[in-house]
């Protein structure tokens, strides 16, 4: 029987509830979902790849068909290496679409056998991004409902920001 393996690639600095929502949706549809964290020497992330891998593994441990890894180099090569036929990407709003479409076309040019599948996360996460999460955490705002509590503790520790006092 044909098993469909999908790769969900990204930076995940840090993972958000939007990422986790997409992982759950992907795990429901594909036989196997490989979450691939890019080892990117150009960006200076807040969390190391190993820390991001740990956070994602903590949050997805209950999903039997989900694996969390890191990768270097071209996504199409990584996908081929893992036997994946699908790249899963989340689209939040029209503003994401141009960037996502450009990547999808380029990946298709590099490997026509690889399909990009776009999925919408829950509406509640349509404005959520790792960048905004980092900014809100730095400025002491509430992240309730936006990231898992385990990620929030690490984030506040990394930034040296105390947890919010209840109002
Ligand atoms: O979470 P992000 O930062 O939007 O993820 C971007 C990612 C990791 C999907 C993209 O940068 C990527 O696939 N990089 C791997 C290198 C590559 O294949 N580049 C050509 C893509 S068109």
Note down, in words, how this protein is organized:
With 167 residues, the protein is an alpha/beta fold. It is 42% helix and 17% strand. The chain has helices at residues 17-29, 49-60, 75-82, 94-110, 130-138, 149-159, and strands spanning 5-10, 32-38, 66-71, 86-90, 115-119. It has a 5-stranded parallel β-sheet, with helices on both faces. The chain binds 4'-phosphopantetheine. Residues 9-11, 38, 74-75, 103, 106-107 line the site of 4'-phosphopantetheine. 4'-phosphopantetheine is lined by residues 9-11, 38, 74-75, 103, 106-107.
Task: Supply database-style keywords.
167 residues; alpha/beta; binds 4'-phosphopantetheine
What would you say about this model in short?
This protein has helices spanning 17-29, 49-60, 75-82, 94-110, 130-138, 149-159, and strands at 5-10, 32-38, 66-71, 86-90, 115-119. The chain has 167 residues and is α/β, with parallel strands linked by helices.
Which SSEs are present, and which pair or pack?
Blueprint: E1 5-10, H1 17-29, E2 32-38, H2 49-60, E3 66-71, H3 75-82, E4 86-90, H4 94-110, E5 115-119, H5 130-138, H6 149-159
Parallel strand pairs: 1-2, 1-4, 2-3, 4-5
The site of 4'-phosphopantetheine (PNS) has 9 residues, from strand 1 and helix 4.
Task: Give the distinct bound molecules.
Answer: 4'-phosphopantetheine
Largest sheet: 5 strands, parallel
**What percent of residues are in strands?**
15-25%
Q: How far apart, in Å, are the first and last alpha carbons?
A: 55 Å
Low-confidence stretches: none
What is the H/E order?
EHEHEHEHEHH
Structural class category: alpha/beta
